Amino acid sequence: MPTGDGLLARVHPPLGILALEQARAVAQGALLFGNGHLDLTARANLQIRGVTESTRAPLARLLTEAGLGDRRADGGPQRLTLTQPLAGHDPAERIDVPALARAIEAAARDIPGLPAKTLVLIEGRPDAALPDADCVIVARERARVEIAIAAAEDWQTVLACGLEDAPVILTALLEAFVRTGRRRMRDLSEDERARLGTALRASGSAGSPRPPGGRSVVPFAPAAGLRTRPDLQILALDAPFGRCTADTLDRVVSAAEAVGADAIRLSPARGFVLLAPTGAPAAAVMAELACDFIVAPDDPRRSVDACTGAPGCASGSTPTLADAARVAEMFRPLAQQGRAAHVSGCAKGCARPGPADLTLVGTQGRYGIVIGGAPGDEPAIHLPIEAVLDRLGRAKTVGLAAAFAPNMARPDNGGDGRPA
Q: Which of 140, 153, 164, 195 places its Cα 20 to 30 Å from the Cα of 331?
């Protein structure tokens, strides 16, 4: 995939897990065949940046030899399922999540015409928050799951089935989805959604439509920091704005070796999770990694999404990563209130397609301001970054909407970007 800093190579680790030697290979590939920068995505994948036409083939060979080569050549999803980073190690799970994910990957791998971004979320905890996906499978009992598909703003058409039947039923669902010609399930019409429900019932499932799972009280991915259980230590490292380097990935591998972790788990929080035995020097290792990663749950950068922006992305006109770091500091009081911000290089909103409390959309070197909306929404005002920071300073007392109102009495550097 071409970008402003070269080609982008996506790496899809099976079940979002890298063996240590695989992680070393990814770091080596980024250093030798890219520009040394890596993105961590909300789908628990990696992206190697700065690949060229002359380096793409040797990079592909390196990744294939490490067991990370592409599995499909037809444009379909290289990895179909998303599971939480602690899948298989969480006592709250009611099913064997990794086993179900592997079965679904095998059953649905050869469905022709399946859109590349199709995503099936598998959750073994009935009370966990559910990230964006096309379809979700949630365990309600030890041997039964519920299947739901995404609608415009919620989940719909949920049916229950036995755990052993889920891969076959899901395959029928995905085949029916392909026949609609849609790219994402949330874009289906009511009639199309109803037909998918019919496909599920025809496959032998039973049950009545209802919202999946129970009350969402458990986060899908562990928060940044060190958590200790009687049987395990969990080290969660978030990459600031989803970006790291080959050198810092190598440091994570060394950290995993130091604490006795046998793998690196990618997190939808755009970071890494290490599982260490009790007694390992986890606290010391976390302290060593604090200069490169977010290691505290109250770090304001966790509340701000940002894409690559200029100059790394040809669509961006603003240095979103540098600006996002400045926004995060000013956003700290709002982050403590549970608010979220998004600094996007353009209206595509790659880092966060959905709404945020504050969305900054880069355009011609400035930012369009969207309050409570998505990057594609009409901005209320356009401001340079210094004016954005100034208004954020006022937002902690007057609120976001008032601070970014176009008719603020205090003039901003460069005006509001609208015609007089």
A: 153
